[in-house]
Amino acid sequence: MLNVEENELLTQIGPGKPMGELYRRYWFPALLSEEIPGADCTPVRLRLLGEDLLAFRDTNGDPGIIDPYCPHRGAPLFFGRNEECGLRCVYHGWKFDVTGACVDLPNSPEGETYKDKVQIKAYPAWDRGGLIWTYMGPPDKEPPKPNLEWLEFDAGRRYARKYFMNTNFAQALDGNFDPSHVQFLHNTLDNTNNKRGGEGWNIQDTNTKSYSEYIEADHGMILLRINERDDGKKGVSLVHFWMPNASSGGIAGSGVYSSNIYVPIDDENLHQYRIRWSYEPFTDQQVYEDKYGGNTMPDQIPGTFLSVENKSNDYLISRIQQKNYSFTGIRSNPIQDQAVIEDQRGALMDRTQEHLVSADEPIIKLRQLLIDSARNLLEGHEPPGPSNPDASRVHHARFVVPEGVTNEEAVEIGKGKMVGPNPDWVASKEWQSTFAPVRMSEPVPPSPSSQG
Ligand code: FES
Ligand SMILES: [Fe+2]
Q1: Which residue has its alpha carbon closest to ligand 1 atom 4?
Q2: What is the pLDDT of residues 122-135, one digit of tens each?
Q3: Which of 258, 261, 266, 294 could join 249 via S-S bond, C-beta 3.0 to 4.6 A?
Q4: Quick one: how far is CA 236 from the chain centroid?
């Protein structure tokens, strides 16, 4: 539970807010590269961290993110002509390049010299890994570019989809680092979904002895979990939180890693980027599953980033499925998450009303890291991550160590496995068997209305 001041500090990301300023120390995705697909393409309206913006690509193909309004008399640059390395306002012809400089001011004789004094807001934009990244902080604090491992992978080994969600970023992060929801929210009534171990470390185990540790790192935090099996071996899992907004979403399949990045539109809305990458080219089956399977990447309404199953239609919950097949009756894992995250007493939850338990420990640790980092920045202490992008070149790891290996030794082994290609990632299959899923002891009782 947080008090009112802590909850506001955690969730408010507008300009001048402590968390907003912390966000503005990092590069993060602003949109998909394909939204501005080529030179001189149609501009795209954006809203990021509570600021309205406009993205476009100039004649050289370079991306720009600028103020959406013309400084002359405020006309929308969205209607601008994208021509010869600049966006020209259709009202009186003022023209701006991707840096926000006014490069032509043709409606007045003084324009030739006056244009040099006109500059609109523009944020750096960087096209990499299928995303356009931006940095919205003070220019003198601009850090080196991100260096996540998948950013240098070709399109055959990475995949990204973007989803609109009606929730605060911290609410979405809480859901990502919630260890005990998987065996309920994502389960099937015969418990088989749990056994697939799709979200790995999240599976709560009551039949094994477990040990957790939260290791602060330059990129954010490593959440370590070690489970002791009856045969003496240990299942080890290392999950990452990349400050200020990303989770390692687990090992998604055969050598495939995943991450969710949450980019606030404003305090109550965000875009989630669901990322997958693989050291080996994706198989045809993986490509099909991601593009058309509707499970790992839920289907979207064409031309939007809104899932077909969304808040306006109660996520197409099937009460028949809920009675007979799955815990929720909602079709896919991501939509099951979305259904509970988008309305926890609203899109901006009041954390003074929570009743946290020991199973919520990772959530508590992450909130504390974010709050401490925002307070530290207020006092002039910069977060370590932005200036050390190499620290973020890590991924989820899980493996089994033999009898006799201490927890400390297991952590050291894990640090080697969360970097670069991991030849023995296949051990994850054995790793899954270290977790004995909790059975739901009672079948879900029928509701009174279904009886008789
Ligand atoms: S309002 Fe844009 S040029 Fe006049
Ligand atoms: Fe989930």
Answers
A1: 92
A2: 999 999 999 999 99
A3: 258
A4: 24
